Amino acid sequence: MKRVTLIVMDSVGVGALPDAADFGDIGANTFAHAADAVEELKIPNLQSIGWGNIDGLAGGRFAVDAPAGAFGKMGEVSMGKDTITGHWEIAGLETKEPFKTYPDGFPAEFIAAFEERIGIGCLGNYPASGTEIIEDLGPEHEETGKPIVYTSADSVFQIAANIDIIPLERLYEICEIARELLVGEWACGRVIARPYRIIDGKRKRTSDRRDYAVSPSGVTMLDRVQAAGKKVYAVGKISDIFNDQGVDESVHTDSNMDGVDKTIEAMRQPFEGLIFTNLVDFDSQYGHRRDAAGYAEAIMEFDARLPEIFDAMGDEELLILCADHGNDPVHAGYDHTREYVPVVVYGKKVKAGTNLGIRGSFADIDATVCEYLGAEGSPLGTSFMKEIL
Fold it and tell me: What superfamily in CATH does domain 108-212 come from?
């Protein structure tokens, strides 16, 4: 039973791309800087499959003599460093024009139209850290009922609300209205619901985040796997990123560890095809919050779960680990960084110790997954299947 389990370790970049200067990201290195933030980064399971042998990774200090998997890193051809751009390229789509961003907030004309549609004014409308803005504007929001809106360096319109003030379903409805409006001259990659509650006197985000993305710009790896008669099972925010296109079954997650649990549950089901997982905590909890030590702890926590994933793998199953961009926790600001991303492949059929080098596009994953599952791959990528089997 052929199957690929593809896990995106959201934002775990492995060093600045050659064009990082164009994005203000010279010197960015998410993994290395997270590793430097703790006395000892213990990742024996990642090391065992070749993570530490990726060319140039953290000065080679995590390399082992005989890794059991294949390993390399991938450059990005798309113009951007955001979630949608990264995932779409993994799935075979190049984004030639970056999604529109709003460093000065969204246009007054859009805000007026949005407020008219939702029947109330809003607060904020500027780039901000999500955890900081709910502290700054939370009291006024809770007094007036006005939702908090904000953006970042990415193409996002985020809407935060205390769900004891604006119920969750109403928050989702407000996001759907924003999604309808944010097209054309007001184009935006994602609308994100950011619910929170006051717990023990502190404003804390809940796990009910929901992303409303634009639909993919073309046919993706997910569509092609489906067309080959195989199943696509999405874990985490994958179904949101692809606007449900090409997804047969999906499940949302509360955390990285919940994402691992639900990935393993999917792996225990008998079907051929693709399990596509996003583990978002690396990015949302640690990268954006510039918590380097927390980032390192999250990597170690994931590493400790890998034996369970290995045990759940069938004889013809491939595990691929990668990322979608960087989010260096010691870099300036609160936003993503333009970096290489890792690619590590493990399975009983994988040729141990294969160095995949530096790949030209994230879409090499699309080409490889599709070849393995008997589907037609995107011409953007180059399959490394023959190198690893």
Answer: Phosphopentomutase (3.30.70.1250)
